[in-house]
Design brief:
With about 100 residues, the chain is of the alpha+beta class. It has three helices and four strands. About 25% of the residues lie in helices and about 30% in strands.
């Protein structure tokens, strides 16, 4: 049986469908950023040691980013000022989109 009405599924619970949960040592940073280069409406994903780093194009010279890292690294990244975080994003993207 399948119940597909969300993480805390009332249908699953009512049907008595069991689940198993796992904890992963990962956190996802999600942000939008501007860049000088043209993304040509192309999404880019890097597969890193801690998880995906995925850039998704937005209109103009803007993109959305999902960056999966270890929880401690996420805390460090969130604490950075805009200039330092922009530099880290640009470095991780290998400057593919120019200055961030």
């Amino acid at each position: 049986a399948v119940a597909a009405d969300g993480r805390l599924s009332p249908a699953r619970e009512a049907a008595g469908i069991s689940t198993s949960a796992r904890s992963y040592p990962q956190a996802a940073l999600v942000l939008n950023f501007g860049h000088r280069g043209d993304h040509a409406f192309t999404s880019t994903e890097f597969h890193t040691e801690t998880g995906p780093f995925t850039q998704v194009p937005l209109p103009g010279n803007r993109s959305s980013l999902v960056w999966v890292v270890e929880p401690e690294t996420a805390k460090e990244l969130v604490a950075l000022d805009d200039a330092a975080l922009s530099m880290r994003v640009e470095q991780r993207m290998q400057s593919m989109l120019g200055r961030v």
